[in-house]
Amino acid sequence: MNIARQIALAATASVGLTSAVAAEEIVRGAEVAFGAGTAHSWALLDSQNRPQEIGVSMSADAVATLGNDMIFVTLPLPERAIEAGYGHVSLDWMPHGHHPDGLFGVPHFDVHFYFTSEADRLAIDPADPAYMTRAANYPDRIFMPADYAPPPQPDPVPAMGEHWLDTTHPIFSGAPFDHVFIYGSWDGAVTFVEPMVSLDVIASRQPITAEVKQPEAVARTGWYPTRYTISYDPKTDTHDVALGGLVLREPHAQRAALRN
């Protein structure tokens, strides 16, 4: 998390509990081993306990020691992030990239913020006789941004689901992959959102903020991101990937607006 937030927290502590309501608060999930370091989730709350950001921090020693083997870790979320509509985070290290190779064939991180439980995610299993049927059961188009599309043919990833990409992203015009934002689905529902970030971007330690394109409506009440950020915090020596600009969206209000 960045220095400004740390200073705000320190200032709150120095003036006592009576001023706590005037400052932001960061709540953390449990640390998990990652490479030779650790990773954890966190949520930034405002003075009214509303989530402003939900993110992941990877220690610099973790990023420097991940090696050539794929790593998949599940990061538990703090309770306030779960109340905001998220179930857990899956943090994946892809040292050789993954398909399609022409797009994502470089070392990178997949940071999946799931709206579902880990048990539901792990149940996405090719051994399920209805696996491909459920993969092809896409959400209604109003629940996905207009520019996003699934693969030309159903192409589910076990323990993840289908991945929807922004068809206007520069990677489809030959630009090298640096970071993208993905929506995920399974069996008719939007099940995750995912910033995907190359190792080169993380290693550069340059801050990045990018827009998250919005669907017309949502199927479930929750706090949804309008941007995502990639940053390095020298104070904590961590690399952070976060969903930001969270806004509360409700399905009934969205559908009513569409009808009017």
Question: Care to describe what's here?
Answer:
- InterPro entries: TTHB210-like.
- Residues 1-22 form the signal peptide.
- This is DUF5602 domain-containing protein.
- The chain is of the alpha+beta class and 260 residues long.
- The protein has one domain.
- The chain is built from 8 helices and 16 strands.
- The longest helix has 13 residues, at 3-15.
- The N and C termini lie far apart (41 Å).
Record keyword descriptors for this entry.
alpha+beta, seven-stranded antiparallel β-sheet, 20% helix, DUF5602 domain-containing protein, TTHB210-like
Largest beta-sheet characterization: 7 strands, antiparallel
Helix share, percent = 10-25%
Run of helices and strands: HEEEEHEHEHEHHEEEEHEEEEEH
Give the termini separation. Answer: 41 Å
Q: Please, how many domains?
A: 1
Q: What would you report as the Rg, rounded to the nearest angstrom?
A: 18 Å
Structural class: alpha+beta
Q: Please report the number of helical segments.
A: 8
Strand content: 35-45%
Protein name: DUF5602 domain-containing protein
Signal peptide: 1-22
Keywords: Signal
InterPro entries: TTHB210-like (IPR033786)
List the helices and strands and how they pair.
Layout: H1 3-15, E1 25-28, E2 32-34, E3 37-45, E4 51-59, H2 60-63, E5 71-75, H3 79-83, E6 88-94, H4 101-104, E7 108-114, H5 118-122, H6 131-136, E8 148-149, E9 162-166, E10 179-186, E11 189-198, H7 199-204, E12 208-211, E13 222-224, E14 227-233, E15 238-244, E16 247-249, H8 251-259
Antiparallel strand pairs: 1-3, 2-3, 3-4, 4-15, 5-6, 6-7, 7-11, 8-9, 9-10, 10-11, 12-14, 13-16, 14-15
